[in-house]
Amino acid sequence: MPIEIRPAEPTDVDAIVALVTAAYRGDASRGGWTTEAHLLDGRRTDRGEVAGALAAPDTVLLTARDGGQVVGCITVDRGDGTTAHFGMFAVDPTRQSGGVGGALLDAAEAQARAWGCTGLALEVLHQRTDLQGWYRRRGFEPTGETQPFPYGDERFGLPRRDDLVFDLWRRSLPPEPR
After folding, report:
1. Can you give the pLDDT at residue 11?
2. How high is the mean pLDDT of the chain?
3. Which of these, 102, 96, 117, lies nearest to 175 by C-alpha position?
4. What's the chain's Rg over C-alpha atoms?
5. Cβ(2)–Cβ(72) under 8 Å?
6. Fewer Cβ atoms within 10 A, N terminus or C terminus of the chain?
């Protein structure tokens, strides 16, 4: 059965929280390549953040499903109207490197185009060179801009080092092929 990409529903909140946690933090995340467990402890998201993404008027939370089970997710927000932004991008560690992430990013790009955006952007930890390599292969480039890591704000995790910073990346979106 092929992966189905569709918007999340309120009943998906707990599954999305569990998925994002499994993909980025704790022991389960070490089974995939997107783990941040070597950089951060603590939570990656919670019910409030996921429910907020579902309720936000200029945000779409997409899920990848296999047989009805949520195996991936990504949020896309309209950004400034020219460049959309994505985040909360996660794939079940046991399903990584199997095309789920690529399908979700394709759907995010389609959503950005539907809004009339000509670019798509994200922040990625500077220390995540493996992840940056994946984004580069998908056509994203660093902008040269950075954002400081929000030390002291536990919503973003508990840093295991004192040199964390986010690099801003962007990709131009060519028009949809006809």
Report:
1. 96
2. 89
3. 117
4. 15
5. no
6. C
62: tokens are: 């997409």
CB 22 within 8 A of CB 14: no
113-127 b/e with 16+ CB inside 10 Å = b? Answer: beeebebbbbbbbeb
**21/129 Cα distance (integer angstroms):** 20
Indicate the residue type of 93.
P
10 Å Cβ neighbour count for 88?
Answer: 21
pLDDT tens sequence across 115-135 = 999 999 999 999 988 889 999
58 is written with which tokens?
């200029």
How many beta carbons lie within 10 A of that of residue 101, not counting itself? 21
CA 60 from centre of chain: 12
pLDDT score of 8 more than 60: yes
Q: Could you tell me the pLDDT band of residue 35, with boundaries at 50, 70 and 90?
A: low
Residues 6+ apart with CB under 8 A from 51: 10, 13
> What is the pLDDT averaged over residues 91-107?
88
